[in-house]
Amino acid sequence: MVDRSKQQAEAQSVAFLSAGGYQVTIAPGLLDRIGEIAMAEAPAHRYAVISDSNVAPLHASRVVSSLERSGPSPLLLTVQAGEAHKTRESWIALTDRLLEASFGRDSAIIALGGGVVCDVAGFVAATFMRGVPVVHVPTSLLAMIDASLGGKTGVDTPHGKNLVGAFHQPSAVVIDPEVLETLPIDELRSGMAEAIKHGAIADAAYFDYLAQEAPGLLAEGPGRRDVQALNYVIEKSVRLKLGVVATDEREAGARKALNFGHTIGHAIEMLSGYSMRHGEAVGVGMLLEATAAEREGITETGTAARIRSALVAAGLPTERPSGQLASRIVESMRSDKKSRGGVTEYSVPRRIGVMAAADSGYSVRLPDSVVEEVLG
Ligand SMILES: NC(=O)c1ccc[n+]([C@@H]2O[C@H](COP(=O)([O-])OP(=O)(O)OC[C@H]3O[C@@H](n4cnc5c(N)ncnc54)[C@H](O)[C@@H]3O)[C@@H](O)[C@H]2O)c1
Ligand SMILES: [Zn+2]
Question: Which residue is closest in CA terms to ligand 1's atom 34?
Answer without folding.
Answer: 183
